[in-house]
Amino acid sequence: MTMPREESNHAIITVIGRDQIGIIAWVSGRLAEYRVNILDISQTILNEFFTMIMVVDLEPSALKLDVLASTLEQEGDNKGLQVKVQHEDIFKFMHRI
Amino acid sequence: MTITFAREEIQQTINMIHKENLDIRTITMGISLLDCSSDDIGKMEKKIYDKITKNAGRLVEVGEQISARYGIPIINKRVSVTPIAIAAAQMNVDEMVRIAKTLNRAAREIGINFVGGFSALVQKGFTSGDLALIDAIPQALSETEFVCSSVNIGTTKAGINMDAVLKMGNVILKSAQLTSDNDGIAAAKLVVFCNAPEDNPFMAGAFHGVGEPDTVINVGVSGPGVVAKVVKKYPEADFSELSNLIKQTAFKITRMGELIARAASKALDVPFGIIDLSLAPTPAIGDSVAEILENMGLERCGTHGTTAALALLNDAVKKGGAMASSHVGGLSGAFIPVSEDAGMVRAVEEGALTLDKLEAMTCVCSVGLDMIALPGDVSAETVSAIIADEAAIGMINKKTTAVRVIPAIGKKAGDRVEFGGLLGGAPVIAVHPYSSKLFVHRGGRIPAPIISLTN
């Protein structure tokens, strides 16, 4: 079993909540501000519920993952959105061997 | 290179954590105290305090960092130590109590939830340290907050020490009496084992075995809610399919434990020991092992078929989990604590689940009679006889069994006790009214069983 290398600084951002104008603008604006690079993005609306999944690279950023997570989670909360930022390894470990 | 994930995969992981109560139940650092021995109690207290605070000083901080990085809750950070009856074999009863208080001080200083290892291994007989420690247990547990205690009274290889069984009935009752204002909480921090594992990260039974390295990281995963959801989703699945579904789920849960264990081991520069892939319920709704069994098609946990359902669950969890981790150990299986599992509590309240059925279930689950409130007028001999039955199941079946029962002083069957937090609350369960006194007072040892002629 090969273990993922620790060097990866990729995170998965998920945003779930009632659809409203400017969700992606807000997230991507914040990420640009913190110099976090977006690698992949997908978004759908199901029954008026907005779901976005974003793969980002924190390498260029000075910000730690946990700080980014708490900032976005708190701001998202104020907008009625559930925002999670998690290191990609948790998904890799669970779904890839 | 970026690995892309399917939307469903990401959604599934997030649902498991946020809707189905998937969490890492504990990161437990094992610490050897074998190098802390001294004839002088003051020196020994200082050595123990220094060793724990030095080695585990960053445990809570690192646990919180890892939790934030991966977005998964890590509920407990704990420390287990060398059985104190071994590390402090020269101490008397009062000194043993002082050592328990030292462990408690160290635990408070570093902010952990529990410290385990106020323990003795007496399957074949007692040393003077074992006797001092056992006598010290009621006072030690009632005057400390974080200390957990365990005593191993039998093994498949050694048989059952019935003198120790008799003693432990008294110790459990006395522990409950000393903390009767808090529903006997001291007894909830005390477990009596047969075939105790030396690398178990779960409390109250965690201790750091003498075959372990100086320090080690063991991780306990959880996730009954995730399994319950999967079982519920496939009501038509036959048992082969059901077993596979549980195996796949256990695999995913255990992978998460493996990831966290590796991260913690690296951050703390402490070797990784084992993952304990137990399904450990909490009082939260939807985090129940009983619910899994009921989702398999039983109207209530405890009815006919419950033992078979639990056997399938326990085995499938082990199979799935064993594939997911490089080192599996500890207790690994399904826990059936009553007060910590809302489904078990309901089953007892409705009369579906009795002490006798729980005993049968322990033949196929990973541990034993756990977090069960007994009537306050139960005799020490009856508690001892309950321990003897449970130890016999473990000894003959070559598995770990344990007893953690709490005599509810001043209460009778049907009354309720509250322990709070993860320990939950439970109805007091009835015991048999007939005496076992003459039996448990015989003393001596039940010989180790023959291991051929297995029928």
From TrEMBL, chain A:
Pfam families: ACT_6
Matching CDD domains: ACT_1ZPV
InterPro entries named among the record's database cross-references: ACT-like_dom_sf, ACT_dom, UPF0237/GcvR_regulator, UPF0237_ACT
PROSITE patterns (alphabetical): ACT (PS51671)
Residues covered by the ACT domain: 12-86
Family: Belongs to the UPF0237 family.
UniProt protein name: UPF0237 protein M8H41_01410
Species name: Desulfosporosinus nitroreducens
Lineage, broadest ranks: Bacteria, Bacillati, Bacillota, Clostridia, Eubacteriales
From TrEMBL, chain B:
Record field: transmembrane: none
Pfam family, one: DUF711
InterPro entries noted in UniProt: UPF0210 (IPR007841)
Residues forming coiled coils: none
Stated family: Belongs to the UPF0210 family.
Subunit (UniProt): Homodimer.
Listed name of the protein: UPF0210 protein M8H41_01405
Source species of the chain: Desulfosporosinus nitroreducens
